[in-house]
Amino acid sequence: MPLVELRNVSKIYHLGGETIRALDDVSLDIDGGEFVSVIGPSGSGKSTLMHILGCLDSPTHGTIKLDERMIHDASPRELAFIRNRKIGFVFQFFNLLPKLTVLQNVELPMVYAGVSGRERRERSMRMLQMVDLDNRSKHRPSQLSGGQQQRVAIARALVNNPKILFADEPTGNLDSHTGEAILELFRELSTQGRTIILVTHDPEIAAVTPRRIEIRDGKVANNLDARLAGLDRQAGSAAAAPALG
Amino acid sequence: MILINTILIGLKEIWTHKFRSILTMLGIILGVASLVAMAAIVKGMENGMKEALIAMGGLDKVLIEQQKVPVHQNHLRDMAPGRTIRDVYALKESAPLLKVVSPEMALERALVARGPKAYRPSEVVGVWKAVLDMNLYELQHGRFFNELDEESANNVCVIGTGVRDELFGSPQEAGRDIVPLGQEIRINDQPFTIVGMFKHYESEMDRKKREEGLKDPSQQAVGPVRQRGWGGRGWNAFWRKNNMVYIPLNTMWVRFRAATGTNNVPDQTLTDIDVKVASLEMLEPALQQARNVLMVTHQGIEDFNFRTQENQIEDINKRIQNARLSGGIIAGLSLLVGGIGIMNIMLASINERIREIGICKAIGATGVSIFLQILIESVVISILGALLGLAASKGLVVLLSELSPTQNTPVIQTQVMLVAVGFSAAVGIVAGLFPAVKAARLNPIAALRYE
C-alpha cells in the first residue's frame, strides 16, 4: 500500500481571462521510506505539486490519498492538522521565526499539537542533538549561519515525527559545501527509513536520490527509479507504469 | 497552557516594538485615566453636596411649614391655629414613625452684641434639646440647656463658632481658640450667658482652604482688614450652621414674645416644627401619620404643609448623573479612539508578519490558533494600556488636587477601575477581531511567498 497516492490530479488557476493548468492530470505513487526528488524547471508545476502533496493546497480535480486517508476535499482545519502531524517542511529560505530562539522554533509545531511544555523541551533538545546544534538552543536564528539555520529547520520539521519530509530547494540558499552537508543529512535520514521528497531544479542534486520524478508543463515527464535495476534510462517512462499500478 | 504561551508571545511582540506599543496604548491609557479621574472628581463633588445636605440636618429631616388655608376652607381661616407647641406634644405622643420632633421659635432680625461689637447671626432660635438630633449639632465646650433652664426661662444661650469669631475673635485673629463660656452677650439688648459652644463646622473644601491659608502667609490680604465681597463664602449651609444662637424655647417665648399675642398670653405660634422620620423607607407613611395627627389638633383646617429634602437629593443626583454622563461620553470616545489605534497597529503588524503567519500555518497552525494569537495580542495591549491608565489616573487626580487644592477631594473608586479595565478589554477584543480574522484567513502559500 503506497503512502501517497495521486490519481488524475489537476490544478487550474484563473489569472485574468487566462486559464493556467499548473498540474495536468498527474498520477503518482510514493511508498513509505522512499527518497524521491521532484525536478523540473521553474514554472513546470513542481511547486504546485509540492503544495498539493504537502496539504498546503487542494487540487481542482482528482483524488489524493495520504496514509490511507483521502485528503483532496479536506477542510482547512483538517489540512492544518495533517500538516502538523504527518508532514514536515524544509524551505529554501529556512523560514524560522526571527523573534523566537532556536529551541522555541523547534518547539513550535508541538505547541500547535498541544504537547506539554516539558515534553516539548525534551523532544526539541533531542532533535537539536541529532542535527548537532544543542549548544545553540538559546540563540536567535539570525545569530546562526545559513547551514545551521537549515539544520534547525530540519529539526523543526521532524520534531512531530511526520510521515513525510518535504524539502523545497533546501540547498538553494547555501554554498555548495554546506549544501553538500545538508544533502548528506537527508541521505542519513533516508537510511533511517524516513520518507523524503526533495523538490529542486538542479539535476545534480536530484542525482543523489534513488528515484527522480521529472515535471514538465504540469505533467510527469519522466519517472526514473534507479532501484529497478537492469532498466536503462530510456525505459524509465515505461517503468512508471507498474509503479502506477 | 497554549493560552499562556500565546499571551507570552503577545507580550514579546509588544516588547519588540516598545515605542510603537506605547504610542498605541496611549489612547487607552488616556481614556482609562480620564474615565477613572472623572469618576473620582464627580464622586468628590457628590460627597461635597451630600456633606452640605447633612449640614442642613440630613436626609430624613422634614419641615412642617405654614401654608395658607385652602380655598374651600377659606371661611374657617380665622380659626386656623397655626403651628403651636400643642402640635409638638401631639406629634410626640401619637406619631411613632417620627424619631425626633423639634419646635423652633425664631427671633426675626435679631441683633447680637458684646460691648460695642454687634452683628446679625444667621438665626436666634428658641429650641428644645431635640434640636441637637434634628440639626446634627455637637457641643464642643460647656453644656446644652437643661430642664431647669427651660422651666424657669433662664437667659442662657449656646452659640456656634461663627458667633464667637464675630464677637470675641476667631482663632486666626487671636492665634488661639477662645472659649467664651460664662461670658455675657446681649440679644436685642437682653443679657444672656453663654453656657455652651458647638463644634466648628466646615466643608472639606473650606477646611483645606483654611489649612492652606495657615500654611501660606503670602496669601494673607495686603492693606486694611476687610471682608471681600458680599455673601460669597458666607452664604452656604456651613456658615448658617456656625452662626447660630440657641436659647431655651420658654425663654424665647417669655422674653421676646411678651409684646404679642392676645389675652395676656404671648403669641404661641412656632416658626418651625421640624421632624425626623424613623427611617427613609417609611417616609410616606410617617408623613401620613403626622398629617393625621395635625388634622386633629388643627380641627381639620389644613394650614400646614410638609417639605422634605427629596428635592435636594433629586437635584444632587441629577447633577451627578449629568456630570457622569458627559465625562463618561468623553472618556468612552477616547477609549474608542484608542481602540481604533489598536486596530490600526494590529493591521500593520499582521501585514509585517504575513510570512511568519504563513510559516506557522505550514507547520500546522490552524486558522483558530492564528486568530486567537492576534486577538490575544490586541487584548494584551489594551489591558496593559488600561493598567498604565489606572496608574496615570492616580497621577492625574494628584495633579488636579495640586492645581486646585480647595476643590472637593476626588475619590478613586475600585468599582470604576474595574469597569474601566473591563471596558478596555472589550475595546481590545473588538479592535482585534477584524485583523485576527484577516490573519486567520491568509492563504498559507501566498503568505509563504510574501516578501
Structure, explained:
The complex is a heterodimer of chains A (245) and B (451). Chain A is globular, with a radius of gyration of 18 Å. Chain A has a six-stranded mixed β-sheet with strand order 6-7-8-3-9-10, with helices on both faces. In chain A, strands 2-1-4-5 form a four-stranded antiparallel β-sheet, with helices on one face. Chain A starts with a strand and ends with a helix. Chain A has eight helices and ten strands. Chain A is of the alpha/beta class and 245 residues long. In chain A, 36% of the residues lie in helices and 27% in strands. Chain B is α+β, with helices and mostly antiparallel strands. In chain B, helix 2 runs antiparallel to helix 12, helix 2 crosses helix 14 and helix 3 crosses helix 11. The two termini of chain B are 32 Å apart. In chain B, strand 8 and strand 9 form a beta hairpin. In chain B, 37% of the residues are buried. The interface between A and B is medium-sized, with 29 and 22 residues.
* H/E series of chain A: EEEHEEHEHHHEHEHEEH
Q: What fraction of the residues of chain B are assigned to beta strands by DSSP?
A: 5-15%
CATH class of chain A: Alpha Beta
Which band does the percent of strand residues of chain A land in? 25-35%
> Care to count the β-strands of chain A?
10
Write a brief caption for the model.
Chain A contains eight helices and ten strands. Chain A has helices at residues 46-53, 76-86, 102-113, 117-130, 146-158, 176-191, 203-206, 236-244; strands at residues 4-15, 18-30, 35-39, 61-66, 69-70, 87-90, 164-168, 195-200, 211-216, 219-225. The model of chain A is unreliable at 229-245 (pLDDT under 50).
Please specify the SSE layout and strand pairing.
The complex is a heterodimer of chains A (245) and B (451).
Chain A: E1 4-15, E2 18-30, E3 35-39, H1 46-53, E4 61-66, E5 69-70, H2 76-86, E6 87-90, H3 102-113, H4 117-130, H5 146-158, E7 164-168, H6 176-191, E8 195-200, H7 203-206, E9 211-216, E10 219-225, H8 236-244
Parallel strand pairs in A: 3-8, 3-9, 6-7, 7-8
Antiparallel strand pairs in A: 1-2, 1-4, 4-5, 9-10
Chain B: H1 2-16, H2 18-55, E1 61-66, H3 85-94, E2 98-107, E3 112-114, E4 117-119, E5 123-127, H4 131-135, E6 139-142, H5 147-151, E7 156-159, H6 161-167, H7 171-174, E8 184-187, E9 190-198, H8 204-215, H9 237-242, E10 244-248, H10 249-256, E11 272-277, H11 283-297, E12 304-307, H12 310-352, H13 354-362, H14 367-403, H15 414-440, H16 444-449
